Amino acid sequence: MNVEAIRKDFPMFENKSKKGFDLVYFDNAATTFKPNAVIQAVTDYYTKYSVNAHRGDYELSYQVDTLYESVRDTVASFINCDRKEVVFTSGTSLALNQIAYGYAQKILKEGDVVISDEAEHASNYLPWMHACETNKAKLEFIELDEHGCVSIEKFKQAMHDRVKIVSLAHVTNVMGCTIDVKEICKIAHSYGAIVVIDGAQSAPHMKVDMRDLDCDFFAFSAHKLCGPTGSGVLYGKYELLEEMDPLMLGGGSNARYDMCGNLLMKNPPYKFESGTPAIEATLGLKAAIEYITSIGIENIQSYESDLRAYMISEMKKLDNVIIYNEKSDSGIVTFNIKDVFSQDAATYFSDKGISLRSGQHCAKLLMDFLDTPSTLRASLYFYNTKEEVDYFIEVCSQITPETFLDVFF
Ligand code: PMP
């Protein structure tokens, strides 16, 4: 992988920080930079065929329909599923809410159980909390192992006959743990439970294959894989999509309705896609997948893994750093500077041109497990470099509680 050439595809790297530093962007778990190909795809929509999709019978309308529907094929081949199983959403959060409101609330009975864990993002916890509350079902938690991960052993201990839905992140957004989806699905299915996978942090970084993993639902966002904001994907096995009710009703999703209250919905995936979608963002998603595929998702994964290993080994040489997820296998590194509040540290990093995340990262339940009110999170992508990591380490080493004395006193 020629990272130097790759970085030239991303205009964001031409910018400098306010103080003139090169941008070191280590907040890729939040969102990623966009390559020219994606920006061009979005611009092309507004300059070449800026009309609605699925609405008109004129030339431009056909052009945009054809392009828009071709994105479904691109996604289907990216995650290995049927095109009819690809629902366009605004992102992971909407996809997970769609499953919780449209499927879970339809099937959960009093006393049924949904399984989650403390390391989940709020978008994969709150919808289930709400669905369980509404249906008088129970939300139960898998105990995390000593690394803050869901192991197969702990998962087996949590499973029982009342479990109807298991909803887990493929890769968690703070601990960066990858679960064994295939094995989890095998076990859950043997109990008759379905498995929902939050793929927000996995699909951009590793090969995800729906036929191989055999999960029942899978959600991811375009903006975390170099695509535009406002676009995402909900994959569902077709028979489950048929069973699930849409979260939204409106134009585009129905076949017919009348004044007596009769309504005939279209078949999936269209019954979930009411209203004018984010057309430009969906076209941008296609360009993003093509871009990622041209680099090779396996190359991306192995490059990130090497860069993370280097970062961890260099961080371990510093005695002012606490690492919370040394053993995880993603590009996410969660840490603190000893005796320094994470937001203060993040402000210092920012002053030196380094963007990383501080706080609770939408995973508030995890802070008790980590026994800290907040953390820093550096998350890598394939355009980050060893030189950036070296600079980051240098800045890390400068931060002590005394760094902030001048500011506060
Ligand atoms: N799940 C995980 C694990 C995430 O990291 C995120 C984004 N931070 C989400 C869900 C929500 O994604 P989005 O904001 O794109 O809907």
UniProtKB/TrEMBL annotation:
Its cofactor is: pyridoxal 5'-phosphate
Write down the chemical reaction(s) this protein catalyses.
(sulfur carrier)-H + L-cysteine = (sulfur carrier)-SH + L-alanine
GO MF annotations in UniProt: cysteine desulfurase activity; selenocysteine lyase activity
Gene3D superfamilies under this entry? Aspartate Aminotransferase, domain 1, Type I PLP-dependent aspartate aminotransferase-like (Major domain)
In terms of PROSITE patterns, this protein maps to: AA_TRANSFER_CLASS_5 (PS00595)
> What sequence ranges are listed for the domain Aminotransferase class V?
24-392
Superkingdom assignment? Bacteria
Q: Give the residue spans that cross the bilayer.
A: none
- Please report which protein family the annotation says this sequence is part of: Belongs to the class-V pyridoxal-phosphate-dependent aminotransferase family. Csd subfamily.
Q: What is this protein called?
A: cysteine desulfurase
